[in-house]
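Anyone up for a design puzzle?
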């Protein structure tokens, strides 16, 4: 009987595979996801009362941090395959 993977493992393996997908659709999806995460963090900084310059600057900073992290995850998967 094959052991079933738990939900956390299935999600993390799916995320890593998504990061390694070099198709145009996957790149667009990752760009949209990065933007949404950046905007959500920008909104959160507004709710907590951060200065306006932080609220405006947080979105590109988040996107600049997420892109190389996702690329490294995808690269690691390709090297391990």
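Challenge accepted. My sequence:
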């Amino acid at each position: 009987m094959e052991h079933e993977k738990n939900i956390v493992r299935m999600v993390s393996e799916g995320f890593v595979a998504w990061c390694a997908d070099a198709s145009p659709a996957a790149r667009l999806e990752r760009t949209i996801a990065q933007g949404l995460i950046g905007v959500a963090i920008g909104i959160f900084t507004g709710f907590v009362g951060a200065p306006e310059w932080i609220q405006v600057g947080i979105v590109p900073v988040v996107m600049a941090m997420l892109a190389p992290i996702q690329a490294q995850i995808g690269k690691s998967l390709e090297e391990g395959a």
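A detail worth pointing out: The two ends are 26 Å apart (CA to CA).
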